[in-house]
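Researcher: Let's run the pair from yesterday's discussion. Sequence first, then tokens, for each.
Model: Starting with the first of the pair.
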Amino acid sequence: MVTLPSDKEAFVAHYDQTKDHLPGRNLAWLNETRAKNIALFNDIGLPSAKTELWKFTSLNPLKKQAFSAPETSGQAANDDLPRLFDATSSVRLVFIDGKYSASLSDTSLPSGVTMESLAAVLDNGTTNLDQTRMSRPRAEEQPLVALNTALMADGYILSVAKDVSVEKTIEILHLGSGKAESTHHTRNIISVGSGSKATIVEHNTDHGENVYFSNTATDISVDENATLHHYRVQESNRSAFLISSTEVEVGKGATYDSFLLNTGARLARSDINVSLAAENSACHLNGTYMGTDDQHCDITTRVDHKTPHTTCDEVIKGVLSGSARGVFQGKIIVHEQAQKTVGNQSHRAMLLSDQAEVDAKPELEIFADDVICSHGCTSGQIDEDALFYLRSRGLSQEQAQALLVNAFLADAVEAVQNEDLKDLFLVRISDWLENNPNKPA
């Protein structure tokens, strides 16, 4: 194993040490792409408070760590793996420490769905991989994506053929083995063909309480008249560092529906960038985050309305206790030609302690004149009048506060269309309230 401090020079040195062993090392175009991106990362470095998009989230705790880059994938027994859904209603793909485990995955996928390990595709020299999916717009704003591109060791390429309605939920488990303080850079590609529908649920969790760093980049295309429900459950241990960046292209008449439930990690940052590039395209970006102790949760979104008749709805709610910190940054950009746009954004946070803190930065950039757009951000303590009312009806202080917090977060969960998933999220919220060491007294 190679031990690497988490500064810029260490990551560059790690690239120099491992570039000849990364998957796809015989592909000239990929070697060029990796080299270009590590050079970009070396020029920019890790984001700091001087970086506008990172002014509220410091990576100093990450920089103080030393990680081990495992040379082989972690292992886990099949009966140790958490499963969100019954096997009869879902298929599950398993990644351990960022690497695909075929032996632990359900390899019989629904008709019209294919999944390949990125490492296997690159090592096989497959030429039908869209090379443009390995680059990003505004790359200079995303140094950690550049680092991911340079060091990506595995991930998945998941495709849904056109005119396919996938009945089973596709569950993707990202499991930290807990055996080492590791770092992994995972690259994922999702393609949903025209006229198709699919539900993908990604689950981040781990064994143990070890520190590790997961840096994930996901690129998604939702073709004409297709619908992708993309849900994420992030409940890693409170020593972990998780950073993810998702880039979505939504086609004509298509819908990208997203929900994030975030309860884990010491530092969790989720960037979601959506391009509504064709008429009647739509996205729903919803979620809840819950933090306690010194946890830090950052949700940063950007939606580009590029053509007429596009729609975006965004509802994010958070609850913080202890000395936890939450960050929400949401930008809606309506380009000049994007008339008849509808874009609504809402972020609300409830603070359960005097030490908890939230920073919010909603932005609207509108260059068209026939639009309906709004944004709103609020944060505050629990409603004392509502609390008094419930206490007067015989509830204890703890019961009353738990009921109010549940109701506050459940409002965001109502956006989830799948009833099984909605129930799952509500149970996770209740579990967090019950197990929160800083729950209201």
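Model: Moving on to the second of the pair.
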Amino acid sequence: MLCFEFIYILDPEIYTRYLKRGVYKYVPKVWLKKMKPKEVVNFTNEKGDVLGKGIGVFLENNEKTKEEYINGVIDGVEVFKSEQTGKILYDDIYIFNRKDRHYIREKTGLEIADGMEVLIYFLPYVLKELLYLCDEKLWNSEILMVSDGSNLPYKLIERLSKEVRFLTILEDKKENAQKNIDKIYNDTGLSIFYSQNVDKILMNYNIIINFKDNISVDTKKLRGKTIVFDLSVGQNFSEEINNINKSVITIEDFLFHWKDLIVEKDFFHTEELIPSYKYEVFNRYNIKDFKQLLVRNEKYTLEELVQTKIRNRIHI
């Protein structure tokens, strides 16, 4: 049996284009929609190793209910997964909340690639370089991290522990927070301040890293040119900020070089750079691959962001 690490639910546009190349070009679309999931392509590297499999499931976006999309993903994956498959790659990942992703994982035994491990790995580098370009040091910066109660914020703190001195964690579950704070202190020596009241401390920070889906804060109180990394599933925090406070820098994703990582490029992506969730399936963490940031849905290099958005910011 062919072994591969990820299954990619092909983008509907790519899948439709594939079908129209062959005999299916004569089949009415209404009939094509009734097709069962179809194997389309094996993704390989330059050595010929099979990295993943691309399957066709959906022909259009936004034509089904979320439940239908969930069941479609599950049905397609169950047919084609191998014993070595660990990830599901799906471009409309943001329609699935945490509960949906947990359900898919329970049914398939596979994780949906969400880019979180990639973001956690690269964020210390990105933040350090960003501040360096601003003639500032991460060591002197005060950071607020908003926890979702998972272990992810603390994994990031561990990666930041040798680079920062001043870090506050905001979390609803005090016992969970204190347990992790104590562990990090014992392991790294980093002392973390804990708070449950965001309104009282929000104005103190120019760097905020958010993991939580829903935060009850007055975004108008954020300081001008605050840098927000929104790593939450729904990214409601950055969306609210973008609508209300135009002076805040909301970083929503990192973008990566990928063209030499895969042979079947036409089936994988249509743009020069890929988002973090797609980069994740390569299990490759190379700083040279990092190229740009997604800020308010616009793409910037670190240098461009500093020159156009941050240069005249308040000192951190």
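Researcher: Give me one sentence on the second I can quote.
Model: The chain has two domains: 6-112, 116-310.
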